[in-house]
Amino acid sequence: MNEIYISTDVETDGPIPGPHSMLSLGSAAYTADKQLVATFSANLETLPGAEPHPKTAEWWATQPEAWAACRKNLEAPDAAMTRYASWVRSLGGKPVFVAYPAGFDFLFVYWYLIRFTGDSPFSHSALDMKTFAMALLKTDYRESTKRNMPKRWFDKFPHTHVALDDAIEQGALFCNMLKESRG
Question: Where are the annotated coiled coils located (predicted)?
Fold first, then answer.
């Protein structure tokens, strides 16, 4: 079974799950040779009792289009996460969660999966693109930002702060990095 790289982006209303909510989840499943196999997206209802973090709410006020996009067609978290876990399992292969940064996105997705489905199809397989860039660039972690990455790694996708758009963009970036690392 080959690995399938599931580039994932979340939009949230705060820095941690529980006190704050995941608003939107987008994933793009890629093979190592950069074939986009499938996509998933869901906009979630906020958690009961959760509140937006003031700094995050302030940032969202500067992103009206992305905010509107993540507040359409809302699903209950349990329904969305059950649908997501089934989607991941339906892809076949060994799923690897990929994100930039994985420390943030995986935190939310894993918490929501465990909370609402009791299990994670990823186990603990989460690949951080920033760490991968650090290794490829042979530089410090904090210098491994997108602005310091070679232009050849980027396809012409916009970064819209709409979860699925950003998951597709970052998945293509990851596949370009992977190709170069193996090249």
Answer: none
